Amino acid sequence: MAGPGQKVLFILGGGPRIGHAVAKKFLSQGYKVAIGRRNTDKTDVDGALPVHVDVTKPETIEAAFQEVESKLGVPNAVVYNAAALTFPPDKDPFAVDPAAFSRDLEINVGGAYAALHHATRLARRHNNPPLVYIATGNVTPFQAHPLAVTLGPGKSALAHLISVGTIAYDAKEFRLYFASQVTDEGGPVPYPQVSGEAHGEAYWKLMNEEGHDWDVRFSVASDGSPRFA
Ligand SMILES: NC(=O)c1ccc[n+]([C@@H]2O[C@H](COP(=O)([O-])OP(=O)(O)OC[C@H]3O[C@@H](n4cnc5c(N)ncnc54)[C@H](OP(=O)(O)O)[C@@H]3O)[C@@H](O)[C@H]2O)c1
């Protein structure tokens, strides 16, 4: 269990890059951290609790929240980081198998909704405000790309959910962000240039600073720190 005043972060879809970097940042600041993913044997962040979750299976998301609550406490922060992309054959977006499209959509937004549901119910049941929910985003909701045909629709729906929550709830109770690393020009970031450490710093600021819009875009400065747009 978390000690008195000790806060809890739960990351869904936490792997070696963004997930682990965010976990390390919050652990270094005194948080208890749970990392949810399918392959918990690969969760190798010292001090973090590995939790089995497959975001395509809503019952595992509910069970994962119960496990985090019982072992660490009610989460104050939730990061939804899982995503999936199927590249279209021959760069033909509608050549993607419909079953692959559905599976990717479930990972990109279906699981995120289940996490919003359980995180907000749990916070309300325990009268534990504020809850901060950060969805790892990208620019696909704002700049369509044919190669992102299975990713963009899910991220767009996820951005919509975050904006809905921002309208519906008082920020003193729930703060929600769709946080996207962008290039200096505001465009998509090539995968090798995605910085886990900058995400960790950016998410820590979102946790602790009020007044950010739900649509958060940041580039990475030459010293590696996030620069908010
Ligand atoms: N800003 C940009 O332009 C940009 C660019 C690239 C990526 N991104 C975003 O960054 C995020 C990914 O970051 P990353 O690559 O650094 O990730 P990461 O934290 O290194 O790993 C993500 C983890 O998600 C887990 N995962 C995948 N499917 C899952 C499922 N069905 N259930 C539970 N967990 C699942 C995988 O672990 P298991 O295999 O163990 O489940 C994977 O290791 C995504 O949201 C992506 O859209 C943004």
UniProtKB/TrEMBL annotation:
InterPro entries to which the protein is assigned, alphabetical: NAD(P)-bd_dom_sf (IPR036291), SDR_fam (IPR002347)
Entries under PANTHER family matching the protein: 5-KETO-D-GLUCONATE 5-REDUCTASE (PTHR43669), SHORT-CHAIN DEHYDROGENASE (PTHR43669:SF4)
Organism: Dichotomopilus funicola
A single MF term (Gene Ontology): oxidoreductase activity
Gene3D superfamilies: NAD(P)-binding Rossmann-like Domain
Domain of life: Eukaryota
Organism classification: Eukaryota, Fungi, Dikarya, Ascomycota, Pezizomycotina
Keyword Cytoplasm appears in the UniProt entry: no
Pfam (any one): adh_short_C2
Protein family membership: Belongs to the short-chain dehydrogenases/reductases (SDR) family.
Keyword Oxidoreductase: yes
Keyword terms, alphabetized: Oxidoreductase
Protein name: Epimerase/ hydratase
